[in-house]
Amino acid sequence: MKQLIELEPWNSGNYVLLSNIYSTNLKWDEAAKIRLSMNEKGIQKPPGCNWIEVDGIVHKFLVGDKYHPLSEKIYAKLDELTKKMKVAGYIPTTDMYCLT
Question: Taking Cα atoms as reference points, which of 15, 34, 16 lies closest to residue 97?
């Protein structure tokens, strides 16, 4: 991964992946150094993005997006689904540490 950062110093994905590898292995200081290096170089990770098609219309969502006209209803539905999943016994995987 360090070689990828040297080859593509502009590619935020390489920094994030290396930081996540360090975090997964509980090497918090190393992960912090990678994130600090990103900040010092002005490299930012683009926000997560998803698309969904409903009735032939494609809707795009960014992480934390509140600009969609139905965002309040969408987040309410996500909260409802999350609660139902927990009641059904869903337990999220927490053995991977990702610092995004």
Answer: 16
Task: Write down the pLDDT at residue 56.
Answer: 95
Return the closest-CA partner of residue 98 out of 38, 20, 29, 36: 20
The pLDDT tens digits for 47-99 are: 888 888 989 999 888 887 788 788 888 889 989 999 999 999 998 776 655 54
What is the distance between the alpha carbons of residues 19 and 81, in angstroms, rounded to a whole number?
A: 31
Q: Please, where are the H alpha helices in the chain?
A: 2-7, 12-24, 28-41, 71-87
Which amino acid, 62?
L
Largest CA distance in the chain: 48
What global pTM score does this model have? 0.57
- C-alpha distances in Å from residue 63, one per residue of 20, 41, 57, 79: 19, 23, 20, 15
